[in-house]
Amino acid sequence: xxxxxxxxxxxxxxxxxxxxxxxxxxxxxxxxxxxxxxxxxxxxxxxxxxxxxxxxxxxxxxxxxxxxxxxxxxxxxxxxxxxxxxxxxxxxxxxxxxxxxxxxxxxxxxxxxxxxxxxxxxxxxxxxxxxxxxxxxxxxxxxxxxxxxxxxxxxxxxxxxxxxxxxxxxxxxxxxxxxxxxxxxxxxxxxxxxxxxxxxxxxxxxxxxxxxxxxxxxxxxxxxxxxxxxxxxxxxxxxxxxxxxxxxxxxxxxxxxxxxxxxxxxxxxxxxxxxxxxxxxxxxxxxxxxxxxxxxxxxxxxxxxxxxxxxxxxxxxxxxxxxxxxxxxxxxxxxxxxxxxxxxxxxxxxxxxxxxxxxxxxxxxxxxxxxxxxxxxxxxxxxxxxxxxxxxxxxxxxxxxxxxxxxxxxxxxxxxxxxxxxxxxxxxxxxxxxxxxxxxxxxxxxxxxxxxxx
Length: 454
Description:
By secondary structure, the chain is α+β, with helices and mostly antiparallel strands. It folds into 3 domains: 86 residues, Roll (Nuclear Transport Factor 2, Chain: A), CATH 3.10.450; 145 residues, Nuclear Transport Factor 2, Chain: A (Roll); 114 residues, Glucose Permease (Domain IIA). The protein is built from 7 helices and 22 strands. The longest helix has 30 residues. It starts with 12 loop residues before the first helix and ends with a helix.
């Protein structure tokens, strides 16, 4: 019996040929147009990392293989990207010896035409060129490297701020307001008031103010003696913990030839400021004794003396104060200028009328202060001219005369009229302010004397 199951094919030949053709076509399609899953598999396999432990022989039983995937790259086009650090926006430049504003800008790596454009656009920026060693510039640049802003401390009391705007550069100067604290100084005169105040650390301007305050009672050209003492409570201006200047004298004492004078600064309700004695009485008189500070008396009031130029005996109706040419001359009282010009042997002369009774004359002047002319009003202590040697004069000095009702009197011996006294209500307020300041001076004096005894 013949076995027909082995010789007869399970499918007709035509079916087998059709199936083979379809399989070939599918294979070709997958090769040309792979599916997304196939692509993903290809990409994944290209980054698989296998350790030697995962490798098995073909005869071994199949095991699970764990693969490590590399981090996905952020740049999908797989091109390398160069990372650059942007330039620093802020530069801090400290000026050194020999630096100019141009070299400062160059150190900040600003474009070469920046300084020219800045100075051309804003005239206020020209002050910025006055730099000094140690000055610090803080310069900020924009993303293009152009000047965006600049700031610097010009001096102890002024800052500058420059900012780029849509219309150009904005330049602003800011005044720094110093803090005010009280300071104390004390000294003894052994040669001159100026040298004594300098040793005590008192600024020169306050030494002049000290002489002005007590100038109604003390002639600083005639009355000063070795051993005279002074003490001053004054305002000190401070910025960042450093002393940058001095303000007003708040209270002071001056011991002259055994007599002590006290003065306290006070502003009344009308806004007028003056100095008063400890009891509230006014120190201000209608006239101060000397029109020139720290001058030497070279010739006194006399009814007859030998004129140094004319070589004749003539009355000297005033007082001569020898001082260097250009020394300031001040009015000894409030009044009206009735002459500012030449007057014979007096040379350049100023004559001031003080009310109905008093008149003062200032001769041999080198020149007149600005605004002083015939008819102008002047205040006591106001600068009116400068010491010179015009007219009949052998050297630079001021000739000063004082008249009462048309009669010449000796200004050194004449009793000067007092100013108006302080009102009762103001006096009470004055005492409330003055007593703590006088007590502070007492404490400072005691502390300083105690230290000197150690």
